[in-house]
């Protein structure tokens, strides 16, 4: 599906940053194909987005093919989730009574179940198969209709690893914002396009090579969203999405640095003297065919942002 205007503000003015080839993924014997795409940055709101994505109908079939249990291991807590846990723990500790917390896009409650005894926890997800699991963890699952009746209800709302999947991010966040009580906080965790790791060749960065990911935010969009919501930004915390020991990180960083140098100077997208020489060298000429930026799992390419709803 061709994206003609910015998903964040509907502006048709943008800067094309880089391009990449088509993406294909097979699930349940169904091939999902996204056309070759460019990543644009909107001149108005600053959102980074693909100009080609799957249609809403295709995405519905795609997401229904997932097994939500693949994310259910409670030992596998991401650094982004650790930051969110600290924010929730701090808010619960400071509160005079039990808080009402909503995880929008909660999966099986992998994050919220830590707080089910200290607060009233609610979960919403497009995959209604998870609601039985939520109940077993002390979390009340809400349908779309039930969520409609919760205006100015929640003290805290979490949108974690969801933003990047949204075809209309600003519209949805505005709808969720209405559910937040005055003085409440909205926590958004997602990829951060302003990271130095993303900026070199963003269309071929691993985040956009994921067929599910259609947009990324940066500081300009965060400021745009805060102005749109009339919110106060109380936290911007950059972090990695994955964690490991110091030694493992050091080893992977060294390997990444070497591969990134080769990709930057020799890959097929570059036209240089070194590129032309390497093309003629057996074994090394394979490097010329690299078309995806090397993956470094511990890069600070994510951000946790907290928006506070001001009292009227």
Please compute the radius of gyration using only Cα atoms.
21 Å
Q: Which ranges are low-confidence, i.e. pLDDT below 50, for 5 or more consecutive residues? A: none
Q: What number is the mean pLDDT?
A: 89
In total, the number of strands is 13
Strand order of the largest sheet: 8-7-6-9-10-13-12
Can you tell me the CATH topology of the domain at 76-242 and 301-309?
Rossmann fold
Strand share of the residues? 15-25%
Just give the CATH class of the domain at 76-242 and 301-309. Answer: Alpha Beta
| Overall geometric form | globular
The helix-and-strand class reads: alpha/beta
Helix content: 25-40%
Counting DSSP H or I runs of 4 or more residues, the number of helices is 10
Order of helices and strands: EEEEEHHEEHEHEHEHHEHEHHE
Give the name of the CATH architecture of the domain at 76-242 and 301-309: 3-Layer(aba) Sandwich
Give the terminus-to-terminus CA distance.
41 Å
Q: Look at the structure and name the CATH superfamily of the domain at 76-242 and 301-309.
A: Vaccinia Virus protein VP39
Largest sheet: 7 strands, mixed
């Amino acid at each position: 599906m061709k994206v003609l205007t910015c998903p964040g503000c509907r502006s048709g003015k943008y800067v094309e940053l880089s391009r990449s080839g088509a993406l294909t993924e097979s699930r349940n014997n169904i091939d999902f194909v996204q056309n070759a795409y460019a990543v644009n940055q909107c001149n108005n709101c600053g959102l980074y987005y693909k100009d080609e994505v799957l249609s809403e109908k295709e995405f519905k079939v795609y997401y229904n093919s997932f097994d939500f249990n693949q994310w259910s291991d409670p030992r596998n807590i991401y650094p982004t989730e650790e930051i969110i846990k600290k924010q929730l723990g701090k808010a619960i500790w400071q509160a005079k009574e039990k808080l009402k917390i909503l995880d929008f896009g909660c999966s099986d409650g992998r994050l919220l179940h830590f707080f089910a005894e200290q607060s009233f926890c609610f979960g919403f997800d497009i995959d209604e198969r998870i609601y039985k699991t939520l109940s077993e963890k002390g979390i009340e699952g809400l349908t779309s209709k039930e969520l409609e009746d919760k205006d100015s209800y929640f003290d805290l709302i979490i949108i974690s690893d969801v933003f990047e999947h949204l075809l209309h991010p600003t519209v949805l966040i505005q709808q969720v914002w209405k559910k937040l009580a005055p003085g409440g906080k909205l926590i958004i965790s997602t990829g951060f396009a302003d990271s130095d790791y993303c900026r070199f060749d963003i269309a071929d960065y691993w985040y956009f090579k994921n067929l599910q990911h259609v947009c990324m935010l940066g500081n300009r969009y965060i400021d745009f969203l805060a102005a749109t919501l009339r919110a106060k930004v109380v936290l911007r915390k950059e972090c990695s999405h994955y964690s490991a020991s110091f030694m493992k990180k050091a080893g992977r960083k060294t390997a990444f640095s070497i591969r990134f140098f080769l990709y930057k100077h020799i890959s097929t997208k570059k036209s240089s003297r070194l590129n032309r020489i390497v093309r003629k060298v057996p074994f090394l000429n394979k490097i010329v065919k690299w078309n995806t930026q090397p993956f470094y799992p511990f890069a600070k390419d994510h951000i946790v942002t907290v928006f506070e709803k001001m009292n009227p």
